[in-house]
Amino acid sequence: MFKQIQKDLKTLDVNLKQMVGPRHPILSAATEHLFHSRGKRIRPAIILLVAKAANNQRELTNEHRRLAEITEIIHTASLLHDDVIDDCNTRRGSGTVNSKFNNKIAILAGDFLFAQSSWYLANLNNLDVVKIISKVITDFAEGEVAQSLTTFDVSMSIDNYMHKSFHKTASLLASSCKASAILSNANEIQQNQFYNYGKHLGLAFQIIDDILDITGDHKNMGKPAGLDLKNGNLTAPLLFALNECSELHKLIEREFEEDGDIEYAITLIKSTNGIEQAKDLAKEHAQASIQNIKYALDNPAISDLKLLSEYIINRIT
């Protein structure tokens, strides 16, 4: 899917190292997420494909490439903070910054990356792009607050879950897709099409991650199964399962405090239709992402963006 931008992705790797830089061993450790983890190029790849799609396959500009780099740095900064909040010790098979050092260092490293992204964002000299990407960092904070206020809350609705998921995950992809279209001088209709493409694809990504937290696919997830449950984060599979299994209510209300509660909860969820319903929800959003670029100019980049959405649908079939 990324063959046409492979060269640009290799350049992105080089540029990221220069942007972050080995200023301090601890900051270098923070960049492990960027440089030594598999599967960390999906967001910049999407941004570059949107750029090609919106400017009808013309050459990418330095601004397009820099936006992709900024998006990856913001994403990585959010992971550093998430690992602290979730008390996560491994990610993609490697120790997290907070486990190698401590929470304070991890938070400072995340703050540093957010600051770096802001600096490079300002240097794009495009006020519209600055506004839309700056809002993402606010969305991250709002999503984290919303999540912290609903831990172990069995009254949480799917709508609340989707709202939180947008702010924590989909906002960055949606806004970066729109920003990429802006840099390609796309009209407002096209900008909104790509925004909605990123929004729905981001939501599909989040739902799939939440499914993997239950199904225990540690290789794909890169962190221990059941971590969301342990932290009281009620996700789509669990919320759907609650409608069928009253025993889950008891486990959540006692906050999984007894030995074996997490494992028992996972077993109960798997015995319901919760996972299948969550898969259907993810497919719905992946299909919605395709619909939003259905009438865009037909070119290889558009085809690759559609193929990516279809890959997600097939991945969870």
From TrEMBL:
Pfam entry (one): polyprenyl_synt
One MF annotation (Gene Ontology) recorded for this entry: metal ion binding
Cofactor names: Mg(2+)
Chloroplast is among the record's keywords: yes
Coiled-coil positions: none
GO biological process, one term: isoprenoid biosynthetic process
InterPro entries from the UniProt entry: Isoprenoid_synthase_dom_sf (IPR008949), Polyprenyl_synt (IPR000092), Polyprenyl_synt_CS (IPR033749)
Record has Magnesium as a keyword: yes
Keywords from the named record: Chloroplast, Isoprene biosynthesis, Magnesium, Metal-binding, Plastid, Transferase
Gene3D superfamilies assigned: Farnesyl Diphosphate Synthase (1.10.600.10)
Family: Belongs to the FPP/GGPP synthase family.
Protein's name in the database: Prenyl transferase
Organism: Calliarthron tuberculosum (Coralline red alga)
